Structure formats: structure tokens, C-alpha cells
Sequence to fold (299 residues):
Amino acid sequence: MYKKVSLVLLLLSAIAHSQQYVDLLSVNYNHSSPTSYGNSEEKTALSNFEVALTIPVVINAKYVFITGLDYNKNAVAIPNYMNNSLFLTRLKAGLRVNYSEKWSGTYLFLPKVASDYVTTTSNDLYLGGAAVFKYTKNKNSNFKLGIYASKEAYGLFVTPLIGMYYKSPSSKLEMSVTFPTDFNLNYSATPKTKIGIDYSAIGKSYRITTENSRSSYVENNSLQFAAYLQNNSLYKNILFRIKAGVSTNEYDVYSMNEKVDFRVSAFKFGDHRTQLNEKLSSSPFIMLESIYRFDLPSK
Fold:
């Protein structure tokens, strides 16, 4: 029994590597009020349900196998669109390598199926992956550098990843940044309550059915800014968050035969596409989120 517990702690320490916790499961739901398409009278309410599961499996002191699953459902009404939901299911499979006490690398294979799921074919499968190197300065801070790449409905997408994690000596202030995808800053108001702000950049694409034909896709590029309140009074390892913020809400529809030559982060090269729908306006949203967090031992 002691050996099993030791392996679990080794595993979780390898995954977190200078953070004092690891998030194994998160579930969230957000909803916005009806949002208009440009100057038209068309409106749609927006909602999103998301589950992220991460399962690390220890191999030895140097290697940790990482697997898991992400599921996402977006409810959005698009004119001439056969369904009112967009789905994404992504498998996570990869390896964490601890090169030394200071350096580690995480390598992930990230295939996904993204479409309206009216009919699902091999064309809805998109391959992707990520490689991230991490330098651990001390128990309260680290730095990351990596790259993410994925085949999307519009072509190849690549983005560099630059990040850092910091926790103050008093443990009151905590910051996590992975540019350009996310930012989180929070402050412990009480031992069980935190207040914070965060930002996330969403970039996905989905094949959709329009006018009884699988000839279009949606490109979802949205930015979300929010403030939140977090509490874990019911059980210390389960965090509940309520967020309120604003989202830019981009759900742009294009013909499947129109692509971009190459996209690096927000920059698109060879983009001569014609958008088939009106632009969505920004809107406020409210999100409810629950996270199962495993706290690492101090030693």
C-alpha cells in the first residue's frame, strides 16, 4: 500500500512540477444573453458545456504517460445551419519526461473530431499535437516554452506557447500565464475563498451541415475576459467557481473549398475567403465551473 501511495505522489509531482496541485477533472457551463448577427434581426443565445479529464500513469521516476479526454458542446443558432450545436471530442495521449530537477518536457498527441455530429466521417477528424519545455526555478515559480499545431477545417494552425507560473511566499497571490491562450490571476481573500480574473483565447473549427450539404465549416475564434469567485467550503479538493465576463463571439462560416495558406497564432497568411454569415456581436456571459484538484504534499 505504501508503494502504491508513493507512486501516486511521484506521478502527481511529475505532472505539476513546481505547482502545488494538479487538476484532474474540470466541468463548466456558460451562457450568454441573445446576441445579434451584425445589423440583421437574426439573434442567437450562446451556451457552452465542457469537460476536461486528465489521467496520468506513472512509468518510472523519469517518465509519466498522460492520457485523457476533452469534450465540448457549443449551442449556437447559425442561419441556414441544420443543427444548433457544435461538438468537439479530443483524445489526449503523450509523455512527460523529467530530464532533471529543473527541466522537463511534455509531448502530447491531440487528435479530435469536430463537427455538428449530424453525420460523422473521417473528414471530421483533425490531428494535432503539442510540445512544451518547462524550467522550474523554485517551488513557487516556473517558466514554459513550447509549440502547438493542429490541422483545422481552414488549414494548418500553429502557435508558439510562452508561459510562467508564480505563487507568492505568503500563498495569497497566484498567477498562471500561457501566452497567447490563457491568463489567470487570483488572490486568497480567506483560506477557502479566492477572487480572480482570467482570460482565454478560443480557437476551434467545425464541419457543419448547411442546406442539406456538408460543404461548410465554422471557425470559432473568441476571446473571453472574466472575473470570478472561487470557494471550496464543501470539500477542500473540489473547487466551485462563478464567473462573469464578456466574450467576442466569433462563429464565422466559410465554404469547405476555401482555406488559408497558413495560420500562426492570430496571423493568417493567404486568407482570401468569403464569409457566408454576418459577424456576431460581443456579449456578456456567466459561467459555472467545478474542478477536482489534487493537492500535492509539501515534501
In short: Confidence is low (pLDDT under 50) at residues 1-17. Residues 82 and 209 are 6 Å apart (CA to CA).
